[in-house]
Amino acid sequence: MFEIPDIQLNQYGKPARIMFLAPYAPDAPDFSKKPYTGNGGYPQYHYNIYKAIQDIGYDVVSSSKPYSVQFAKGNVDYVFSLMNRFAMSRPEIFISSYCEFIQVPYLGAPPNIRAIAEDKFLTKMVFRSLELNVPEGIGLSGEKGIPAQAPFPGPYFVKKRFGAASGGIREDSICSSWKAVGSCARRLMEEGHEVLVEQYCEGIDVTVPVLGGENPVILGYVQPKSDKPGSIITEDLKLHDHLGYQLVSVQDMEQDIASDVRKIWSALGPMDYFRIDYRIDFETGERRILEMNICCHLGKSGSICLAAAEHGYSQADLLKYIIAYSMDRQKNLRQYGTWLI
Questions:
Q1: Considering only CA atoms, which of 167, 223, 154, 172 is closest in space to residue 195?
Q2: What are the coiled-coil residue ranges (predicted)?
Q3: Which of 17, 93, 118, 173 has the fewest CB atoms within 10 Å of its CB?
């Protein structure tokens, strides 16, 4: 499926020095695991990824402070950032944008592609332009308000327009009426969030993890387990993950999904790794794309590692591949220009 590369060396012939950034990344001087704060499994997850990159053989410096990226140039060869959420508006593209500015290779995708993926409504518009099947949707905010009349037939599904780990999704996110949409949307807007209202899709969630490459590598098809109405994935399920994931057969949809991936890759690639999240109704054969995630979960119990393990690959193999591919695709980054003062 893919070849496992050697670790990448810097210009001095030594293992590349990597800056690891994440909200719960270990900090100097002791680089110990952060205490549990009720934020799901993130402290353990970030510590495990830090250790896994070290165990591969890379020289790793770690920080939980996003502004540490200012010190990357001249000090590290690569920035491995899982810093998708922190205290600023639209934080998802900060690290990649700053790395472009200082011309240091980084994990993920270019800032403009990250922006498309992180804005679920914008993702929907782009995918629709690619003639991919997506549910109807509308973006709502406190400034725009909530339309008096429904813009499309229900039932509806209400979630954050920007967000991760199913943040804000509860059982009442499935709304049978536009009145119920108003109540659910106002709750999220009062918390300071923009909202995405979609036409609710019957079926189950199926996520498709993909690795970048000369041709994108589809690792498999994974269902996040759910015991909620409509088999939806709520915030508490994502944070505490007591049900986990399972591999699923997509029956005769493999070629159609591969076609979807090729269209997305052709328009938005290259990307180091990503997930495409579907809602599939196996009774009717209908599949609809909900969103795309870049720099998503790489934990051993998550969908990407689970799919890779089916082909005999370990988490370490994935990390080796992702870092090597990412550094190779950005090998000319420093040739974009030099600063003139």
A1: 167
A2: none
A3: 17
CATH number assigned to the domain with residue range 17-107, chosen from the 4 options 3.40.50.20, 3.30.830.10, 1.10.150.120, 3.40.50.720: 3.40.50.20
Is the pTM above the cut of 0.90?
yes
Taking the C-alpha atoms of residue 26 and residue 121, their distance in angstroms, rounded to an integer, is: 34
Residues 244, 301 contacting (CB under 8 angstroms): yes
- Summarised one tens digit per residue, pLDDT across range 309-338 is 999 999 999 999 999 999 999 998 765 555
How far apart (Å, rounded) are the C-alpha atoms in residues 19 and 82?
11
**Residues across the chain:** 341
78 within 8 A of 323, measured Cβ to Cβ: yes
- Listed in sequence order, the residues at least 6 apart from 191 whose beta carbon sits closer than 8 Å to its beta carbon are 168
Single-letter residue type at 317: D
DSSP lists the bridge partners of residue 292 as: 276
Q: Give the integer Cα–Cα distance in Å for 19 and 176.
A: 47
Quick check: 105 and 77 in contact, CB under 8 A?
Answer: yes
